[in-house]
Design brief:
The chain has 11 helices and 13 strands. It is an alpha/beta fold and 312 residues long. The strands form 4 sheets. It has a 7-stranded parallel beta sheet, sandwiched between helices. α3 packs parallel to α5, α5 runs parallel beside α6 and α7 packs across α11.
Length: 312
């Protein structure tokens, strides 16, 4: 199958590219390298089934790449992913996440793409649910521009299916962690904590440490993307464990894996961030045949071991 991955040099995108190639697919990767790393694609570059284009998905040139490669499916991961950035610069967030997704939809229409698999955010689109874990029937009430951009992306995908019969699936991801996650960015608390601990630097928790997230290992997330290529139609699937892990608990697990003191500093909570979230992935289990396979402590251990090879 011919596939095209946006955000291909990123943490999740590059892991997905490697998996698609291992499964025998042809892959075109697109990334502007503003956050993704070209080195993440070192394994992919060795394959004759992989091609890479460095460009911004909001540009007209993106449509030409899609037209020329004529993929069967577009897996759309390119995005601005930081809630705090979206609060500080909502216009930037909208340009990359909303206009970028519209450009993906238009390119898919023009190239006759069969399906778009979209990356949504289970941690932001539902706002502050009254019942956890939250399922897909819950209303979308995002409390940040980032969450709004992801809901808007789904609405555009639904409209393009009605207008142009392009199938779609949206994967509302929990908090993803694993090897290749950037420890120098603003998102990715496992990598941030792990890197600081391995370097002997202090760690900081924003808030009182009781806020919770639903953590999912990157290989499990890639399994969901692969399943969504051929399964599911015109619907959102939550991709999470259904388990709430507090940031204070997370700190302890990372400290144990790193062999570091479990002594965080505390700071004021940040605007736009939720107090609690966990995702009911029952629909993904039933339709995609997907369940997370990697236990949290094991996944954190794998991530910390990878960080040991990269931290100086």
């Amino acid at each position: 199958m011919k596939t095209l991955v946006t955000g291909a040099a990123g943490f999740i995108g590059s892991t997905l590219v490697d998996r698609l190639l291992a499964d025998g697919h042809d892959v075109v990767g697109v990334d502007d390298l503003s956050n993704g790393k070209r080195s993440n694609l070192a394994t992919a570059d060795a394959s004759s089934a992989f091609q890479f284009a460095e460009l911004d998905i909001t540009t007209p040139e993106f449509g030409k790449i899609v037209m020329d490669s004529s993929p069967d499916v577009v897996l759309h991961l390119a995005a601005q992913v930081d809630v705090r950035v979206s609060v500080a610069d909502p216009l930037l967030d909208a340009r990359l996440n909303i206009l970028g997704t519209i450009n993906v939809c238009e390119a898919a229409r023009q190239a006759g793409v069969d399906k778009v698999v979209f990356t949504s955010s289970g941690g932001t689109i539902y706002g502050s649910p009254t019942r956890l874990p939250v399922d897909e029937s819950s209303p979308t009430l995002p409390g940040s521009p980032y969450g709004v951009s992801k809901v808007t992306g789904e609405l555009y995908l639904a409209a393009y299916r009605e207008m142009h019969n392009i199938d779609w699936v949206s994967l509302a991801l929990g908090n993803i962690y694993g090897p290749r996650q950037d420890p120098h960015g603003e998102a990715g608390v496992v990598a941030i904590f792990g890197t600081a601990m391995l370097q002997g630097r202090p760690t900081k928790i924003f808030g009182d440490g009781t806020s919770t997230r639903d953590y999912v290992y990157v290989d499990d997330v890639v399994d969901a993307f692969v399943a969504a290529i051929n399964k599911g139609s015109a619907q959102r699937f939550n991709i999470g464990s259904g388990v709430q892990t507090s940031v204070r608990e997370l700190h302890s697990v990372v400290a144990a894996a790193a062999g570091a003191p479990d002594e965080p500093e505390f700071a004021e909570p940040r605007t736009g961030e939720l107090q609690a979230i966990a995702l009911d992935a029952g629909a993904a289990r039933e339709v995609l045949g997907w369940t997370p396979a990697v236990e949290f402590a094991d996944g954190v251990g794998r991530t910390v071991e990878w960080l040991r090879t990269t931290v100086s």
